[in-house]
User: Fold these one by one.
Assistant:
Number 1:
Amino acid sequence: MPAIAAENLTKTFGDFTAVDRISFTIEEGEIFGLLGPNGAGKTTTISMLSTMLRPTAGKASINGYDIHGDQDGVRKSIGIVFQDQSLDEELTAYENMDFHGRLYRIPGEQRRAKIAGLLALVGLQDRRHDLVKTYSGGMRRRLEIARGLLHEPKVLFLDEPTLGLDPQTRNHLWEYIERLNEEKGVTIILTTHYMEEADRLCDRVAIIDHGGIIAMDTPQALKNQIGGDVVTIHSPDPDAVAGSMDAPWIAHIERRDGSVVLSMQDAEQHIPGIVTGLVSRDIGITSLSVHKPTLEDVFLHFTGRSIREEAVSGRDVMRLYHRMGR
Amino acid sequence: MDIIYTIWLRNIKRYLRSKSRIIGSLGMPLFLLLVLGLGLNSVVQIPDTGQGYFEFIIPGIVAMSVLFTSVFAGIQIIWDRQFGFLKETLVAPVSRLEIMLGQTFGGASTAFVQGLIILVLSLFIGLSFSSAAGFVIAFLFMVLIGIAFTALGIAIASRMEDMHGFQLIMNFVVFPIFGLSGALFPISSLPGWVQPLTMLDPLTYGVEGIRYGLTGTAQINPAVCFVVLAAFSAFMTVVGAWLFRKMSI
C-alpha cells in the first residue's frame, strides 16, 4: 500500500485553477519533494491531502484512508508542519506539545515520555519550560516538527520547512529530517522552492508549476534529462570549436557569447578526447570547465520564461539530442 | 470530554498568564462603578425600591464585565486563525463541535472570573453581603451570560476575515446590548417605546437575575430571567457551533 496516492487531484477557486489534475504515488519511507515557485499550487496540494481543503475533483488516499471518506483516519495518519507558524506563543514548548498530545488522545504517561524524547531529539529539552515567544525561528520550526511527530504519524507533511531560516539552521533541520526518516521510517512529503533542499533531501521530486506536475523523478534522473554534464569551453575561435564537435556522445551543443556549452554523459571521461581533438586541429582553448547539472538547471529548463514560450519544441529537441546521445 | 477540557485548559492558562489583560479589563468597570456608583449615589434614588444607586448598578457592572470579557474571548479565535494556531487544532482528529465547546467554556470561565473580581471588589466598596444562596444565584447568571456571549463572539468571529471589524462589533453590537440592558438604570424609568427593546435584549435578563441574587429585588421574575437566558445561551451555542463548522481557514 502506498503512503500517499493522488489521482487527478484538482482545486479551482472561481476561474483560477490552483491545482490541475495532478497524480502521484509516494511509497512508504520515501522523502518526496514538491518543488516549484511561489504560487505553483504546492500548499494547496498539501491542504487537500491533509483534509484542510476539499478537492474540486479527483481523489487521494493517505495510508489507505480516503481524504474525503475517512477524514479522521487521514488526520490520525498525518503530522503537519505548516508554512506559517502554528504554535501558541503564550504557552511553553512543553505545553504546546502537551496540548497536541491531548488532542490526539495520547494517554498521560505515554504522552509525557514521548514529549521528553522528541524535545530531546530536536534539542529543545533544556528550554521546554520557556514561552515559545522567546524562541528563535529555527527553534520554533524544530518544535513544530517535534510536535508533528508526537502522535507517530505515518506521513509527515512539511510545507516549506526552512523558509526564512539562515543557512546554518537550515542545514541542522535537514539533518533532523533525514534522521527522522531513517530512524522512524516516516514517509515525508515536503514542499520547497529551494532547489538545494530538494536535491539534498528528496528521494524523488515533482516539479510543479501553474498547478500541474511537469516533471517527476529522482533528482539524479531529472538532472540527467538535461543531457548529462555541462561542459563549457572558452575559446578565441568558438565557431571552430562548435564545428569540430561531432562526436556521437555529445548530447547537445549550444553557443553562448564567447563560449560553447556542451551536454554529455560522463563528461570527465571525454575531456581528454575533447582537448586532444581541439589541440590536434590547432584550435585554441582559453578555459574549460565541467559542472554537474543542478536542479536549478532542470528547473530553468522546465519553467524558465524563455523556455516556456517554446516549451514543446525545446523539450522535443532536447529529447532528440538525448536519444542521439545514447 | 477530554478534548473540550484540553481546549478549556489552554484558554485558562493563557488567561492567567496575561496579567495585563486581567488588570486592563478591570479598569473600565471599576471606573464606572466608582464614578457613577459613588458619584451619583447621593443624587439618585431608585423609585420603587428606594435602593441607593451604588447598590443598584453593581449587578449591571458585574454583568458588563462578564459581557465584555466573553465577547472578546469568543472573537479571539480570529487571532488564533491569523497566528495559525487554529490550523493545529482543526487538523487534529477531533470534531469542530468539541473545539467550539471547549472555546466557549474557556471564554465563559474567564469571563466569570472577571465578573467575580468586580463582585468581590464591590464588597469592599460597600456592597452588603445578602446571602450565600443569593450569591450562588448571581454566579449562575454570570456563567450563563458568559456562555451566551462567548458563543456570540465565536459566531461573529466565524464570519469575520480579520480584526478590522472589531470596532464595528463593539460599537454596534456589544455597547447596545450593554446600554439597553438596564444595567445602569431601572427599566421602568425608560420611555414606553424603548422598553420593548430592552425586553428583547438578552442581557437584561442576566442583569436582573444577578440583581435578584445580590440585592433580593428585580423588576423581572427571576425564574423568567433564568428560562430566557438559558434558552438564549443554548441557542447561541448552537448558532456558534454551526457557524464555526462552516468557517474556512
Number 2:
Amino acid sequence: MSDTDTVPNAAPSGQRPAEKAPARSFINQLEIDLRLLGMVGAFIAVCVVFNVMTDGRFLTPRNIFNLSIQTVSVAIMATGMVFIIVTRHIDLSVGALLATASAVMAMMQTRWLPDTLGLPLGHAALPWLAIVAGLITGAAIGAFQGWLVGYLTIPAFIVTLGGLLIWRNVGWYITSGQTIGPLDETFQAFGGINGTLGAQWSWIAGLLAAAFAVAALFSARRNKIGHGFPVKPIWAEAVVMAIVAGAILGFVAILNAYEIPSRVLARDFAARGMEMPEGYTAAYGIPYSVLLLIAVAVVMTVIARKTRLGRYIFATGGNPDAAELSGINTRLLTVKVFTIMGILVAISAVVASARLTNHSNDIGTLDELRVIAAAVIGGTALSGGIGTIYGAILGALIMQSLQSGMAMVGVDAPLQNIVVGTVLVAAVLIDIIYRRRIGGK
Amino acid sequence: MDRNTDPRANGAKPLVELKDIRIAFGGVQAVDGVSLDLYPGEVVGLLGHNGAGKSTLIKILSGAYKADSGEIWINGEKANIQSPRDARRYNIETIYQTLALADNLDAASNLFLGREITTRIGFVDDAKQEAETRRIMARLNPNFRKLSEPVSALSGGQRQSVAIARAVYFNAKILIMDEPTAALGVHETAMVADLIKELKAQGLGIFLISHDTREMMDLCDRVSVMKNGQLVGTERVEDVTEDDILSMIILGKNPKREAA
C-alpha cells in the first residue's frame, strides 16, 4: 500500500492518512510512514553529514536557497518520469528535449518574434509567447514519441534513445550552435535568484499553503467519517497537521533568512534613482521557480491519486492486460503520459535556461540520467505500477544535496559521480530488500 | 427474466448467438466455424483440451479479439463488438482465467477499473467506491475485509471474489467465466458454484469454461465440446454421461450420436 497512490489525500506533502480500513494491521500503518520516513531520514543524514564536514556551511539559509533552486528543474521532470516508469516505459530523451524546448524559447524571444512581429526586445508579451511556444513544442514532441511507443509499438527505450540524439541536435540546429542570450528579464524571473517573492509575500504564501494543507487533511477526514470509515484519533490528526504546517512555515522562515546582499540592494535603489536608507535589509524569500515546482507537484499528485487518468496509469503499470480488458485505451494512455512528460520538460526548460540567463547547446546534458535516478531513488519501481510524486521530488533533492555537498567539501569531480552512481544502485537495492520484507512486489 | 428450467422450451429469444465464428492466428485456425447460443437463466459449459479454442472463442465475445468472420447476435439483434468496452455496453462481463486484476491497486480500484465513480468535479470518489465495494462484498464474500490492500496481498479466492464482484456489480446480463475455480480451494470453489446458481436464478446467461467435467455436469444446462477449433457438439447434460463428454473431448466425436 505504501506506494500505489490509491489513498485519497490532497496534501502534497506526502503525509498520508494512516488508517483507512478497519482491519489494517499495525505493520501496515507503519509501512506507510517507514517509506517516507526512510527517504526523509536519508535526506537529513546527508544534510547533517555535509554540514559537519563543511563546518556548518551546508545548512545555511544561503545554501538551502541555492539547493532549492538547483533542484527545481530535475524535480519537475522527475514527477513526469514517475508516470513514464510506472507505465513500464522509460524516457531517455528528456535532457535533449529540454535543449530543444529551451532553444525554441530563446529563439522566439530574441530573434523570431522581434523579427517577424516587430516586437522590440523587452516587450512585455515576448517571454509569455516564448513560454507558450516552448510548452507547445514539448507537448508535441512528447505526444509524437508517445504515439511511436503506444501505437507503433516501438519500445520506449529505442524511441527515446533516438530522441536523445535527435532533439539535442535539433536544438543545436535551431540556434546554429550559438549561445542565445541574455534572455528577457521577466523570463529570467523563473530561474531562481532573479525572481523571488520577498519576505512578506513568502509568509503569506506559506500561511496559505499551511492552511490549505490543514484544510485538505480535515476534508479527507470528514469524507471518511461521512462514509462510515474509521479515522485515526483526533490527536494523531492534529500532530500530522502540526508537522505539515510546521514544515511549510519552517521552510519559508529559512528562505526568508537569506538576505539580499546590501550591494545588490544599493544597486537596485540606485537604478530607481533613490538612495538606500541606512540599515535597510530585504530577504529573497521563496523563488518563483520553487513555487512552480510546488504547483507541479500538487497538480501531478492530484492527477495520480484523484483522477481517472492517474488510476489508469497505475492500473496499466500494474497489469497492462487487465487494464486493456477493463476497457482502458492503453495506447492513448501512453500518448498522454509522454505528452505530460513533454510539457513538464518544457517547464523545466524555462527554469533551467532562466537560471543560466541564456540558452546554450549543452543545457540539460545528462539530465535524463538525473531525472531517472531521482524517480528511482524516490521509490519508483522499474517493473511498473509503483511510484509517488513526492518520492521523486525527494529523490531529486537527495541527489542534488549529494552533488553540491560533495562540491562544497571539495571531493574530486570523478569521485562525485562515482558516489552518486553508487548511491543510485544502493538505493534500489535497499528498496528491493524493503519490499521483499514487507511482502509486496 | 423468466426462471424456467429449460428456457429454450418455451420459445424464449436467445440472449447470445454466435454464428459461424472464425479466427486464425498466423495460419492456425484457432476457431473454425463455431456456432453457439445461450439463453437467459442458462449455463452453457465449454469443454475441450488446452488449445481447443474455447478461450479464444470466448475472447471474441468479450471483445478482446476480433473474429475474422462470423456474427454475434445479442437479444436477437446483430451486435458490433470491437473492444472490451463495446462488450460491456452489451452487459457482457468476463471473469478471466488469469484474473484480470491490477495487482498494485486495491479491491475497490479494481472493481471500478474503467468505470470509476467520480465526484462532481470529476475526481475519482475513492470513499464512495470503497463503500460500494464493502456493500457488494458483504453479499458475495462476507469474510472479505482487506478492502484497501493491493490485491496482490489477497488469496486466490479473495481475488476471484473481486473479479466476480466486478461482473455482478455492473448488472451483467451475459457472464463469461473462464476457469473461475482453477486457482481456488475446495471451500472457495463451492462458493463460486453457489454464486453461479444464484446468478442463473436471476436470469443471467453464463458461459462457463472448465476442465472439470464433473463440475460442469453439476453446474451446466448444456455443454459444448470443442476440438481443434471446431465444435464437436452441444448436448443437454441430462442426455449424456460423463464418459460421453470425455470421449467427445478426446476423440472429437459423440459416441451416442455415432451409435444412433
